[in-house]
């Protein structure tokens, strides 16, 4: 394979890793600003949107040049196409971090989240930041098992999001309407952040296997069942027919 071509593919992966690092630290910092009324940190995250746009443009350019000039095929083609989609996911994750930071700035010097609800937001952020770290790991390793775990582990975030929604719609909601709106929006931002991480996991599965995650899982289950049946059949042969072999 041409060295320049491989270098371009590696550069695309490198750009994605930079973006993954950026969105992870951005959400971590935005949540800190939110829960500690840290105006300076909130302003820093809001002002960082230009940096992610620069990374997005760089990655998009690399992908378009590969498609237009190199005509990749098979897995390389899937890598470039998936890379373009992943750029979009990461850009949206960065934008969601900025939304959280803007909420912190808007409510300063107060903390936007009522004290009793802060653990929910903190946990959603922790899970989302962890998912972003897993995104970086699977972009490096192209490990389909890790990518599938990322897809499966999203339930916890969805459960918290649903619980917060239920709390804010109860008749005995003890806070203001504004606080209900704020907490609902924040929960939605964090839930969508994790959803984009899950989408990246799905795209990595497709990139590696050429299959949709659900089809790949079904194939794995079929293969595992076949191996189990073969093992059972071999055991029967060994027990009852081994002496005639």
Automatic annotation (TrEMBL):
The keyword Transport applies. It comes from Corynebacterium falsenii. Plays a role in the regulation of phosphate uptake. The keyword Transcription regulation does not apply. This is Phosphate-specific transport system accessory protein PhoU. Belongs to the PhoU family. GO terms for biological process: intracellular phosphate ion homeostasis; negative regulation of phosphate metabolic process; phosphate ion transport. Pfam families: PhoU.
